Each structure stands twice: as structure tokens, then as C-alpha cells.
What does this fold into?
Amino acid sequence: MPQWKLFKNPNKATLAHFPLLLDIQSDLLDDLRTTVVIPLMPKRLWGAHALSRLNPVVQFNDTSYVVMTQNIGGIDRQTLGEVTGDLEKYRAEIIDALGFIITGL
It folds into this structure.
């Protein structure tokens, strides 16, 4: 499963707030049953409260999304379904957000 790919959130309970999940796990770990994802929230729902370093804003299909780094989690790969997009161009900002949540720097 390729890193930086977007998937539709399969969880109906959280779909309205987090319609997309971003797979951030290294391709070297493709043999694992689970993968690490970060949910994306439409910016219109988040408002102006995003911490730019922790929560970078990305564009996908003419919509702004907030990368909800603090909501990172694992998910069974089989539940993800089809790839809906790619956010590799935001790789540096997302890695910076992950570093910030771990180190505070």
C-alpha cells in the first residue's frame, strides 16, 4: 500500500468530520496487517484554530483539509478500500507535523 495515499474513511461514525484518511506508513512495512493513518477534516469544520505546524492545511479536489496529526492511529488495511488521491507533495509538512507532535520542536 503506497505511502501518502488518501482513502475514504470507512467508519460511518466519524465520516462526517473526517471524510479522508492519509496513509503515512512506510512502504517497507507493507507486510503488516495494519497501517498508520492520519484523518483529514474539512477546514470549514475546523475553522481558524488550526496550529499550522501541527495541523498543516492541504488541498484535495478543490477542498481545503486540516491534517489532524494529533488523531493519528492504526487501521486494518483491509478496511481502507480504493485509493482516492495522493498527498505526496505535502510530505515535508506532514513529516514536520509528526516531528512536532513527538518532540514539541
